[in-house]
Structures are given as structure tokens and as C-alpha cells.
Amino acid sequence: MKGGSLILNKRAEYEDDLKQSGLKNTKSRKAIIDILIQSDQPITAEQIYLKLKESKTEINLSTVYRTLETLDNKGLVTKLSIMDDDRMFFEYNKMGHRHYLVCINCKKIVTIHGCPLTSYEEELEKETDFHIVGHKLYLYGYCSDCKKK
Amino acid sequence: MKGGSLILNKRAEYEDDLKQSGLKNTKSRKAIIDILIQSDQPITAEQIYLKLKESKTEINLSTVYRTLETLDNKGLVTKLSIMDDDRMFFEYNKMGHRHYLVCINCKKIVTIHGCPLTSYEEELEKETDFHIVGHKLYLYGYCSDCKKK
DNA sequence: CTACATGCAAACCGTTTGCACCCTA
DNA sequence: TAGGGTGCAAACGGTTTGCATGTAG
Q1: Other Cβ atoms closer than 10 A to B5
Q2: Which family does it belong to (chains A, B) (predicted)?
Q3: Which strands sit side by side in the sheet containing A77-80, from one edge to the other?
Q4: What's the pLDDT tens digit per position in A115-137?
Q5: Rounded Cα distance, A82 and A100, in Å
Q6: CB–CB of A136 and B132 under 8 A?
């Protein structure tokens, strides 16, 4: 399956997701989810806003924030604080469980598929008596370009 | 070794740390580091400010922020975004490498000692050609009290 | 038609900064 | 006593909110 048809496929899916979450299927929401799906890494509200502007779909920044918050509440989107500053990043959940490797120097974010923590979570549930429902893992370092310098 | 003497011990250590980082050994800095060391979990600048106030050591909030930033830059403190909102948490690094288990309901933060990721980091370095220098892992779930409800 | 969505501008709030004064080394 | 540290108040910037208007179902 090629990239293009994967995205078409995803679009059909998320119109369903919106419906099932009781959300109206508006132009803004579709445009914002499109951007999230096409992005290979988590992005900020402002980045989404700018990408929309580029593609001649001007949507107010507050609408972007409100949409992301709504989708987060419905579980369709996750809000992340990858850089440990006050900029929040967002990712579309349908893309599967992912972790990130962040270059400290150039801020590049590389997506890691596959998760080393499944059995660890089980162990920890026994130890702590928590019911664990998820985790976030960020790894930091220098990418191949930056480590040369 | 009892808790009290551990803390006394740590204090001697961190007066050294300050000196070695070229930082002046001021009342504010000592008070702030004391709070960090005594806390069994990462805390916010405002929590530090309030604890200081309680113990009759009023230190301006900007000074708290400035001190934390200075200590972060010197590598004595780490800044974390555990809750994925715009409140930053801080921890004292001398306490060793730690991970956190956060209760989604009551916001309790449990410290986890021991790290399941050492060999994983090595694998990943080969795969990605990054030089990995650290990671952050947060696990989320419901604590034993909250999962009953 | 009506409840939810959006645009706009103002408010919010955690954090940072400029400047005058203070204190450690 | 010089240069870093602190208090105070104002600025900053990402995010949220109130309100009037628009639109999907």
C-alpha cells in the first residue's frame, strides 16, 4: 500500500471517528486531522496553524487549540511536552504507539516504532499495585549529523 | 543511616557542588536545594516557593525560577514536564536516575528506581546512529486507591 | 431550527527580564 | 569592593475564554 492511499484510507476512518465521538464533521477539524496524519512527528499548534495557512486554509489559532483539546479529550489525539519547555506538541493516536528520539542540538524528532516496555509494565503493576494504562518515553541525544560537530 | 543524617550528608555534598560549579553559596540556593532534596518527587517552582514561605524563608518567585534555571544549566537539577501541561517540575540530580509513575486521577507521583532501558539504548544507538545521552520515561495509570473507585 | 463550532480580541498564567540594590568571596 | 545574586514590577508568550456569529445535522 502506497503512502497516498494510506492517507485516503485514514481519512475515511477519521470521519468515522468524529461521528462516533459525537463531534461535527467540519472543514476545520478535517483539515487539522489531515495535517496531523501527514506529519511524521508530533507538531505544535502553531505549526499546524502555519501549515494550514500555506495551503490556503486559514483557521484561527484558537480554533486550532480548541480542536486539538476536543480531540485530546475524545482520545483521538495526544498532547505531549517533548522539549520540556512550554510548547506543547500533538500527535494523532491512530498512527499507533510510538516513542521519540530527540536531537538535543538540532531538535530533530525521530519516530521509533516498537516498544521495549510491555513486559516491564506488567512487572511494575505487580510491584506498585497501580493499574498502568500507558507511558511516555523520550530519548535524547545527538543525531548523526550533529554528533560530528 | 537515618533520614536526617542522609540529608545532612547531602547538604555537605551540595555545598561542594555549588562551589565546583562556580556558584556562590547563598541562603536562597541552599534553601531551594534543601527543599528539592527533601522532596520524594519532582515539584514545581511554586510549590518550592510555598514551602519556603511556610518555613519562614520568603524567597521571591523569580529568584526561585532563576535559581532553578542556573542549577539546571549546571546539571545539578533537571526540569521535567510530567503532567503535559504548562507547569514545569524540577528534581535534584544527585538523587540518581529515576522514572515516575503518575496517577491520572489523584496526580500522585511515585518514584521508580531502576531502569529497564540500558540495553535498549545501546540497540537504538546502532539502529539510528544517534549518540544517546539520556531519556525520560513516565508511566501513567491509576493508583491502588483510585482504581477502586 | 438549535446546539455545537468558529473568529476575534481580550484575559490568563507560568515564566522571564530590566533595573536598582545587596551580599558573598 | 567587584561581580554575581536578589527583589520588585513589568513584560512575555503560549494557551484559554467570553461573546457574537456561523453552520452541520
Answers
A1: 9
A2: Belongs to the Fur family.
A3: A43-44, A89-92, A77-80
A4: 999 999 999 999 999 999 999 99
A5: 8
A6: no
CATH number at residue B87: 1.10.10.10
Q: How far is C-alpha B77 from the geometric centre of its chain's CA atoms?
A: 6
The answer to whether strand D lies under 7 Å from the CB of residue B66 is yes
Q: Does the C-beta of B86 come within 7 A of strand C?
A: yes
- How many domains is chain B partitioned into structurally? 2
Report the 10 Å Cβ neighbour count for B106: 11
Report which of residues 74-103 in chain A place their beta carbon less than 7 angstroms from any atom of strand C. 86
Q: Residue B18 has which C-alpha cell?
A: 555549588
Sign of CA dihedral B87, B91, B97, B101: negative
Choose among B36, B103, B115, B109: nearest CA to B68: B36
The set of cell numbers assigned to A34 is: 489531515
First-to-last C-alpha distance (Å) of chain B: 38
pLDDT one-digit tens code per residue, B92-146: 987 678 899 999 888 888 989 889 999 999 999 999 999 999 999 999 999 999 9
